[in-house]
Amino acid sequence: MLGKVLRGTDIENSEAAATLEALATPALLLDRDRLDRNLDRLSSRMAARGVVLRPHMKTGKSIDVARRVYQSVPGPITVSTLAEAEYFAQHGFRDITYAVGLAPHTADRAMRLLQAGVDLKVLLDSPEQGVMLGAAGRAAGVRPSAFIEIDCDGHRGGLTATDPKLITVAAALAEAGVELAGILTHAGESYGLSAPEALVAAAENEKTVAVAAAAALRAAGHECPVVSVGSTPTAHFAEDLAGVTEMRAGVYMFFDLVMHGVGVCTTDDIAISVLATVIGTKPEKGWILVDAGWMALSRDRGTAAQRVDQGYGLVCDLSGEVYRDLIVVQASQEHGILAMRSGSTQALPHLPIGAKVRILPNHACATAAQHELYNVVSSDSAAIEARWPRMRGW
Amino acid sequence: MLGKVLRGTDIENSEAAATLEALATPALLLDRDRLDRNLDRLSSRMAARGVVLRPHMKTGKSIDVARRVYQSVPGPITVSTLAEAEYFAQHGFRDITYAVGLAPHTADRAMRLLQAGVDLKVLLDSPEQGVMLGAAGRAAGVRPSAFIEIDCDGHRGGLTATDPKLITVAAALAEAGVELAGILTHAGESYGLSAPEALVAAAENEKTVAVAAAAALRAAGHECPVVSVGSTPTAHFAEDLAGVTEMRAGVYMFFDLVMHGVGVCTTDDIAISVLATVIGTKPEKGWILVDAGWMALSRDRGTAAQRVDQGYGLVCDLSGEVYRDLIVVQASQEHGILAMRSGSTQALPHLPIGAKVRILPNHACATAAQHELYNVVSSDSAAIEARWPRMRGW
């Protein structure tokens, strides 16, 4: 089973290998050196704090990316769909948290993974879901395990740490024969921050709420083994994680312009980019047209609300060097318009038809999802070293 | 070859057939009755004006959708990628316009389709592209054919009708051994309009500029057989198309909330929707959480700039009836938050965990692109009548 995890789909030295110059565009590039650097950074940080890192595979959606995270033995992971859970289970992963609220059809489907020997934990925040999960477990002849979702910042779902319903849900799980895995929270509001002190405070709040929720459950007689927190910003800004047992994060593997705007990374840390070709110029408007529109870049405009709006992406040369202030100002389905950022004093670079550029994405999860595969490169070479397929769907 | 076009991938009466209630979510639905009605509407409109309709396949990206457009013989189509051109050619289509500006790698690849007997026309607006295309044609032993792109409203690429470069490009094509197919323009700015008189004026302008460009070429001694215009709004608002030979449009097949905001369709005309399941509720915030986030809906916020902002989509019940004022107010990767539109006097409908809804998309092209296939339904039944795969990539 592990052999499957370790068998890469690298195409080094194969006929399909190519160079950046020869690659048809638009195409998604993944810089393996930057990926490895980003992985090391967070895993070292968590190891130093004695907290388990449970990477979120929703960003990469690729067994080959997962193999960079776990180079020998498959470890704990988080997923956003049951299709991801099934995909990673097929590749040998056994410790999986499905971090999206349970529905009747996902409860039944999740039980099939338990029957196959996967330690899949699900997420819920209501007694009804507990009853539903218990029934699904009994029908499948397995004992389900669930996290109760905690709301630490009003971002999305979950119960507050002081909500009496927390104890009601735990009791419903016990009654329904469902194991309480622990509590899980996500500081989603941290994506809207940028001041370091605010990020430290968001991480502190995420931890405090999580630990308080676990304490409330334990005080009511429920075991709460796992205290799971996480978001890429808080994972990098948390100073003290006492009481937390695991950290979840996903976009940290690739980083992106939104994370740059939050202050978690530099543009030089961003591991993915979209390779595009110039297909037209409009000198009178200061425009360069490329063949990467929103189909290749995604419609994500996550930097629009940040201090520096990066349009649909920041443009680099073929080596990955940023053209200062050159951004994708407009995108239609298969066209991107490059222009200097408003107010820039830089000159528009000369990029004739056929020239190639790399575009750093606003949001790595959204941009990568527009592509079938990663063209893997290293930081100091123009060779495509591997092609790593992505999975998709639900 | 035609047999291939007419052979559907319907799954009627097959084991895979299911009902809306039983379908795993999120899932893309396509209402075949609405699709057929939308197709009839524009084809009748163009037939009445004696203008060829060349549907744009970038929205549907499906041979099964194309088979509803052309129920007997494959006709003229427009595509946005060479992967689409190759896909539709494999399914018997022979008259294809690739309406994105030419690059060196696409020129070579396009020639392979010409070698295979496909009448593929490409798009350009510079002498350099003409020279590049001529060389690709000579290398492949075929005679390429190209449209000159005309800019009718400053939206994107192309030359204005009065730009002397228009004649320079035509001369470069002749010199390079490239056939001048005609001129092609796209009133992309019409997507930003909503007043009927402004839409009529945009259509009139698109036609006037196209006809003037063709006249300028003819006056300089160049044949300009095709005068191609198009956008879904102008296609539906054009009153007089004298001098125009063909109309291109794509999103008219499905329609969407952006087109509703422009005033081209009603919400009842929208043929695609995303089926989603309730996975949580936050009564204290007036929120209902569903399992369709931006991965299922896309990040498109095209209605944000319109008079009525529909968030990430307008919510309907399982039969397709709109819940007045219930929209997707926030989306993360696999979560959507439903809430009443700001200022609404309507009450939040009761939707418990497990309940299903249909979400009308802002932008059909972007939402459909997030999915592998269409679950085909009819307007008056809850049965999934067919599953139509979509193609993707470049």
UniProtKB/TrEMBL annotation, chains A, B:
UniProt source species: Bradyrhizobium yuanmingense
Q: What is the protein name for this chain?
A: D-serine deaminase-like pyridoxal phosphate-dependent protein
Keywords of the record, alphabetical order, are:
Lyase
Q: Which residues form the D-serine dehydratase-like domain?
A: 271-378
Q: Write down the superkingdom of origin.
A: Bacteria
One family from Pfam that matches here is: Ala_racemase_N
Q: Which family does it belong to?
A: Belongs to the DSD1 family.
Q: Which SMART domains has this protein been placed in?
A: D-ser_dehydrat
Database matches in InterPro entries: Ala_racemase_N, D-amino_acid_metab_enzyme, D-ser_dehydrat-like_dom, D-ser_dehydrat-like_sf, PLP-binding_barrel
